[in-house]
UniProtKB/TrEMBL annotation, chains A, B, C, D:
GO terms for cellular component: cytoplasm. Coiled coil: none annotated. GO terms for biological process: thiamine diphosphate biosynthetic process. This is Thiazole synthase. Its main location: cytoplasm. Residues 5-249 form the Thiazole synthase ThiG domain. Its EC number is 2.8.1.10. Pathway: Cofactor biosynthesis; thiamine diphosphate biosynthesis. PANTHER family: THIAZOLE SYNTHASE. The active site is at K97 (schiff-base intermediate with dxp). It comes from Rapidithrix thailandica. Keywords: Cytoplasm, Schiff base, Thiamine biosynthesis, Transferase. It is an enzyme of class 2 (transferase).
Length: 256, 256, 256, 256
């Protein structure tokens, strides 16, 4: 399968992962290893930047993992920029998942503050991957200010509802010149496969793996789902049709 | 992953396949090998039973493949029983995919003739896997007359529309004491994965692999999709929820 | 709007209704009057055929209402025929809604017993409207034995899930030479409207009206929903398209 | 049914309409009269503001109609404000449907420019009804700057795809303190009814009426669909359930 390039990095795995909600950091590490994920997002808040022995980072030292700090918890562009600077210093990476969600119930992202922050962060030298609603115009504007990818949501974070924004993801994928990573809402390997089949460049999965009674097996399942979907996309799926076409030709052969 | 048992056989692969519509028998053989499929259905009509050098059978000799002759083309129970007897003699197996679809346009199966034929074929010593509409009562009655499995459709044959019978497959899976194989309509690895995630025991895929510009790659994609779905089912997926639960806890950490 | 003809009757209203689950017979009568329904189904079991003062019948005496006795509760063709004879004698009508559902949990209909009973009842002079799964072949066979209409389900009875059998209803409507009445599962006026828009000849609604906190208002809402859908069908709806076509032409008019 | 209040006006009809794409202005007038619509949007571009005999306005003089000029065609906040001022002067109303869609293919609205324009227009004394993506955070922010309503889209303009943003409309309706008008994508009376059933305060329909072969009948159908949906909402619909609840109690009554 084709490698995915974002900014200066290239990835064999198109499954990005998160680090929240796991039963333990040990379990998280095992699951993420098995997932094959090469880009792992970590909430800045969860890292004790003053403590070099911080546990979560110790579990993400494998060279397989590239860290993608995120700004979860901020409510404005200003807070996001401040958090990004902290993250860059603490974690030694200029990659950033930009998340601005003032809403405490559904954690839906703020389009206006996100665009403002993205523009500034790009100027400050960050590789910005913004988490946004599946809004085709917003995605285009983010691309225009220089984000390295766009991360439209499939459904509300943690809802496991799948690709509820399907019709808009289609437009985003069609129009985008930067990679499209479907983030939030993906609840099962079939959801992940479907996103890949429609031409998304990657997916980010966290809740569905982390809260499974068997996170390691579930991580493996998602890895396969993503690969299945990507492989099908590259091999070109047939379109749905209204009329049946029998696999086995219908023939009244007993009349012969 | 758990093995699947149907009648006296057990299968590592939960992807059943068909042999129609491939560009060539050589391509078919390659794709089916890569798919890992251990149960392969062949229309009796397509086999020249008088010719020991028949080409399609020569391409299905690998011990990986168990043959599942099907009665595609028959329109009544009587024709089905006759075809089944021919198939048993010609192919040396008492396994049978029972298909009775009098309708030449959508190839939808006939519930009444199918039940009648199934009852008789079971008495005649066949291992019967009937292709039916996703009708929970019919599936139950087929089980009661002794079919080895039931094969409800996801959507019209060859339509690639996916799991359009989702709500009824759920009931069938919940109620069935024999394996449930989703047959017809599965158009993509994500469809196959979804069927497995909901607890189907296997899926049968033909058109979507055979008509792909790259059938071998597509066969691999379906293999992974099925495994992803089954693994997720065994590891237990979380249910969709209405309220977001952030993977990264929302905290106004910059106020600290 | 075009009138609907079934057998020897013609109907201005395409909303058929049921009599179960209402808070009181008085409330039922009011709601059914307001609904405009001209065909009302009554479970034979609920009628005390020996009692000429039976309450439920007293509430259905308005000439607006044609009674459609149903065989709810029977489990076989034989029971159905017996119940039908009782109904004809007790209620003085040869119209019959044929329901055979052996399954006590989902009340899904039995295709084989239903076809058998339908064939016999037609010979016995009944006007048969069979409740069935949305199975295109079964509907065709029922038409062939002489049923006056077919009544495929939209979703399990009482589930309010709407048109979960959409793709199969489309085929049934396309192929049918007798009226198609969507029965079971219709949970809202929008569901009813959608069934009519796709070309169904009528819908039968019971639960969604009867269990509403305001059955009379809900009956009115369904009446309007059905009429809206039918009128739109007759006036021809546009098909969904992928590309936007602005209602207001997009013109950069300020540049002019 | 409850009246709808927006700013200083109250409406008996919850069906807002547009004036584009009709075969003739005469046909438009007839259809809009029959629709019962009391708020009618007109693209400023289509009005010849210098010509007091302008035809389209002559067809909208009935006191039933309140005009809602829209800014269709503008691409930035600045252009929108300019267009709004022109519209206010020309049409003598400070009501405004704010539309900013730089994208010529799907006509999706720009969230950032829309918020900026809305804020300014509110300060300038306009009653602003902004057309936006179904973005819950954006809708909340628009409400906070003082818009009189929000108009989230159901699907791309003119696509007739229905409520593709269902899950997000639910959140918007739950959170909003101003009326929510579903705009764009509504292709049939059942779509309109469904929007109302979920609690939307109104819908705006244009294409589906205007391009129908029978716009007047279709306008009537939409009127009834909207009323059906609203009435059902007020009378409270039951929720979908998984288990069947028979309308007619299941009883093996023939055993009695």
């Amino acid at each position: 399968m084709e490698k995915l390039k974002i900014a200066d990095k290239s990835f064999s795995s198109r499954l990005f992962t998160g680090t929240g909600k796991f039963g333990s950091n040990q379990l998280m590490e095992e699951a993420l290893k098995v997932s094959g994920s090469e880009l792992v997002t970590v909430a800045l808040k969860r890292v004790d930047v003053a403590d070099t022995t911080d546990d979560i980072l110790n579990h993400l030292k494998d060279p397989q993992f590239n860290l993608l700090p995120n700004t979860s918890g901020v409510r404005t562009a200003k807070e996001a920029v401040f958090a990004a600077e902290l993250a860059r210093e603490a974690l030694g990476t200029n990659w950033l998942k930009l998340e601005i969600h003032p809403d405490p119930k559904y954690l839906m992202p703020d389009p206006v503050e996100t665009l403002k922050a993205a523009e500034e962060l790009v100027k400050l030298g960050f590789i910005v991957l913004p988490y946004v609603h599946a809004d085709p115009v917003l995605c285009k504007r983010l691309e225009e200010v220089g984000t390295a990818a766009v991360m439209p949501l499939g459904a509300p974070i943690g809802s496991n509802k799948g690709l509820k924004t399907f019709d808009f993801l289609e437009i985003i994928i069609e129009q985008s010149n930067v990679p499209v990573v479907v983030d939030a809402g993906i609840g099962s390997p079939s959801d992940a496969a479907k996103a890949m089949e429609m031409g998304a460049d990657a997916v980010l999965v966290n809740t569905a793996i982390a809260v499974s009674p068997q996170p390691v097996a579930m991580a493996k399942a998602f890895k396969m789902g993503v690969e299945a979907g990507r492989m099908a996309f590259e091999a070109q799926l047939a379109q749905p049709v209204n009329y049946a076409q029998a696999s086995s030709p219908l023939t009244a052969f007993l009349d012969d």
